[in-house]
Amino acid sequence: MEIENKISDLKINFKKATKLPPKILIKKVYRKIDNKIYYFIRAKKITKNPIDIDSNIFENFEPNINSLLNINNKREHYIQELKNSGKEGQIIKQADRICNHIFNLLGSGDINLGKDIQWNEDFKTGFIWENKFYKNIKTVNLQNDADVKVPWELSRFQHIPTLGQAYLLTNNVKYALEFKNQIENWISKNPIEMSVNWTCTMEVAIRACNWIIGYYFFKDYLKNQKKNKINQEFWIEYHKALYLHGKFIFDNLENTSHYNSNHYLSDLAGLIWLGLYFKNFKYDQEDAQNNPKIWLDFGLKEFEQEMNNQINSDGVDYEASTAYHCLVTELFLFTSILCSKNNIAFTKEYKDKLEKMIEFIMDITKPDGHIPLIGDMDSGRFIILSDYGDLDKRDFRHLVALGGEYFKRNDFKYYSPNHNCPVSLWCFGKTPQIKIKTNEKPNLNLASKAYKDSGYYILRNDKIYIIIKCGPNGMNGNGGHTHNDQLSFELNISGIDFVIDPGTYVYTADYRLRNLFRSTSMHNTLQVANLEQNNFEEKELFGINNETNAQLLDFNYNYFKGRHYGFMEKAGIIAEREVKLEDNKIIINDFIIKIPGSLDYKKYMRFHLDREVKIEPQADCLILTNLTNEKIKLKLFNLQKSEYNIEKSWMAKEYGLREETRVINCEIKDSVINTIIEII
């Protein structure tokens, strides 16, 4: 089995290599050989002499940084605001669960990790990654169901703010001691460069930023116990570990691929946060090329550059995923707020794009507060300041609320949840307040919107929301987090989902299901036979060919028309779709343009339904009913048979959680398919 895996890996790497220009390929081969030699020597060295620096240099260290959270200056204010928000009980409940080591991560359900947490275990399957030099750890084995994202997710320590909030509310020292004990336990079980939790630099960076937040929640209690030598020693080891996180990040930047992604942005955010935290720290023996000032200067410069590289001119992340757009926005926004509190300003071009990024989240958010799950979704977050354990993984309105405060925009504030966002409270000391000048009546109704550079088109009125995908594959055509979803759509009526994108489910834990969820058949669009819009290799889980070349043909406030070429080379077919929005009706016309001389293929049209939608077959149509008893009539014309096939399917509202649902699958016969969806 191991030999088969190696052969499979070689095939994938060979195909990747053949796509590269010769000069880039030669550089990659040279770098690979050089790295092999370097890391072979380093592994021997570190195994014999673990990485360490003199603890004494951190004995009197205190960060000189304006924190993201200004907790200690307004302690009573925060306590009162939390009580007013009704979140007090929820925070304490979740913090107690954390103290009892009960976690629900990536679809695991509630799992008690026991008194002694195993930080290198996928606790969903029981698989454990043995501690050894990080470059020698194989994080992915497609022949088993282990998911390395599980130990990574736990080791992000995104539960720290919840422990801190519970301590703030109750002054109960058990939350401070739990923070201390978990950090000490993690450090002891994850030596630098010697565990699975060092194999991805992004994870190291996110963990470091969450540890920094923990310092500002707990520093007063643990530092005021100065007579307690144990607490003094804790902060020394804590700061040493944080400092070594920074050195590791700088030495292991994820920027060696042809295109950078959210991973590299996370690395840079970590360098900026750590660079600020250790800004005035001096260590005589430190590497002159790897120190806090270098981290900060490099991180800021590259952050600006990546805003230009990774964000399209319309303000949308280029990875072709709505969820990853939100993660990238979170990285940029939280870090920008931290920098502004420390008198660091970004350029106007940077801030203009960041504002557009938040505007995109506001525009794509459905009336129920959820984003459509277009492209990959791994439930990833950067900092979780509210609702840990109860987090709705599809709701990103807290970012819109933060943007409302940062950019002073009433529309952003208006579309935050219930106009009351605890995340804004932590970052700005207040919940969003809409300020309207006398005699001013702002128009806060969202309208239809086109994001042409990135390929997202929203049609909406008072009752109907529909979003259509028609644009480039992710990362300049290189795939990444793209699905085969060109001309697919989601439909929400009166705030309730009817037609959905089924989501992602998992990545490497089950490569067959990973491929199923990104396939053409799992989207609401034309499929020709069993062909894919863009071909992909079975075991290359983050690569996809660039074959659709989708184009917008026309768009206005109630009309969309687009085209893609994904089936042209395979079957001699060009697919076009137009969508017309009326007051209580959507008319969808699909055009199958056949190249003369091409063969005949079976063709299918699918509509994936939310699991709560009930289906009532009628003589010539289907009646769909949602939980609020809202009904729509769906009728297709030009079917091969006069019947609608209702089949079992799947949906994943968050990573790792799969639920059964239904899909309407119709075989079609003519070159034009008319679909009418009408509210009744």
UniProtKB/TrEMBL annotation:
Domain Heparinase II/III-like C-terminal: 447-661
Single GO MF descriptor: lyase activity
Domain Heparin-sulfate lyase N-terminal: 76-377
Main location: periplasm
Gene Ontology cellular component annotations, sorted alphabetically: periplasmic space
Source taxon at top rank: Bacteria
SUPFAM superfamilies to which the protein is assigned, alphabetical: Chondroitin AC/alginate lyase
Localization in the cell: Periplasm
Keyword terms, alphabetized: Lyase, Periplasm, Signal
Transport listed as a keyword: no
Cited Pfam families: Hepar_II_III_C, Hepar_II_III_N
Keyword field contains Signal: yes
InterPro entries: Chondroitin_lyas, Hepar_II_III_C, Hepar_II_III_N
Name of the protein this chain belongs to: Uncharacterized protein
